[in-house]
Design goal:
- By secondary structure, the protein is of the alpha/beta class.
- It has 2 domains: about 40-120, no CATH class; about 130-300, 3-Layer(aba) Sandwich (Rossmann fold).
- Helices cover about 45% and strands about 15% of the residues.
- It binds S-adenosylmethionine.
- The site of S-adenosylmethionine has 24 residues, from helix 8 and strand 6.
Length: about 300
């Protein structure tokens, strides 16, 4: 059906609606999620398709036996915590897995009873909405720029960078070889290799690469993956290496929060200046302003 005919058909339907139901119908049209799949842009659909492929390659917890420290640190959280990867699972998917008994939002307070409390969730990836926020609202036009995602894991930032930005090179540096392999498979399948590359390495061994970057993304890279001494050494290396005036650094959470428990000796006000962000943006019905507020932008002085 052509556009004009489709519009006419909709008008026809509206004319036939009983007058006492008309207001309810219009309200439903304005608020329903039923049309979401028709409104999603091509890039969102591609990201969803990559996430679906990745879910097929990973256990439901999206963590691997090759990252034992991350398991240990998750268990050491004061509240019972589970890892649910926000790039792979949106709320609807979590609900449907909970209904099937494959996932739970709650834990039992006294075993065998119905007394339950909500589990704390953490994600080791940005969600598709955070990625959209990052490229549409946090970063400027990246034409010709080099972006490095430190700790690229599943590649969410790399794929988002390819689809939502004009960056000329998008490079992930990931220490875990299993995740590097997985990212490589997706880069090849989705034909992103003209701009996207994954380097399997500890970021501390890639100083000259880091120095070449115009934009550096760091989504809670070290807290769950390195012990405290290694975190301190790595942050000192990053601060020492990242001296390109005007380079942009995006972190989640803030640098202040990431460094607060570590004796790094880094003087933030001599290294970077925070750029204020507007978090009041609507990115769709799943917009979670609290999650967006975790992202912070800094300019290297
Ligand atoms: C929280 S994930 C970030 C995922 C991804 N950047 C995103 O936003 O979706 C952190 C990743 O950093 C990796 N990592 C930790 N320390 C690293 C290091 N020194 N060099 C490179 N990667 C590191 C971990 O293996 C993990 O996969």
């Amino acid at each position: 059906m052509e556009l004009a005919a489709a519009k006419a058909a909709i008008h026809d339907v509206l004319k036939k609606v009983a007058s006492d139901h008309f207001v309810q119908l219009v309200e439903w049209l304005k608020t329903t999620n039923d049309f979401d799949e028709y409104c999603a842009d091509n890039n969102e659909i591609l990201l969803r398709s990559i996430a679906e492929d990745l879910r097929g390659c990973l256990p439901i917890g999206a963590m691997l036996s090759s990252e034992p420290l991350a398991f240990k640190k998750t268990q050491q959280n004061p509240e019972p915590t589970v890892h649910i990867d926000a790039f792979l699972f949106d709320d609807d998917l979590i609900d449907s897995l909970c209904e099937k008994g494959k996932m739970s939002r709650n834990y039992c307070l006294s075993c065998g009873s119905h007394k339950t409390a909500p589990l704390a969730f953490i994600s080791h990836s940005f969600s598709p909405l955070e990625i959209k926020f990052l490229f549409h609202h946090v970063l400027p036009d990246l034409s010709g720029k080099i972006l490095i995602d430190v700790g690229s894991r599943l590649g969410a930032v790399l794929f988002g960078g390819y689809l939502y930005s004009a960056a000329s090179q998008i490079i992930g540096v990931e220490i875990n070889a299993d995740f590097c392999q997985l990212q490589q498979v997706m880069i090849e399948k989705y034909q992103f290799s003209d701009k996207v590359q994954v380097v399997c390495a500890d970021i501390c061994t890639r100083g000259s690469l880091l120095k070449s970057a115009d934009v550096i993304v760091m989504n809670n890279v070290f807290e769950y993956f390195l012990d405290k001494e290694e975190q301190i050494r790595t942050w000192q290396f990053i601060c020492f290496t990242l001296k390109k005036k005007g380079a942009l650094l995006v972190t989640a959470p803030s640098l202040q929060e990431s460094l607060s428990q570590l004796q790094t000796g880094i003087q933030l006000n001599q290294w970077v200046q925070e750029v204020p962000l507007d978090y009041n943006v609507y990115l769709g019905r799943e917009t979670d302003v609290d999650a967006l507020k975790q992202l912070h932008l800094y300019e290297v002085l």
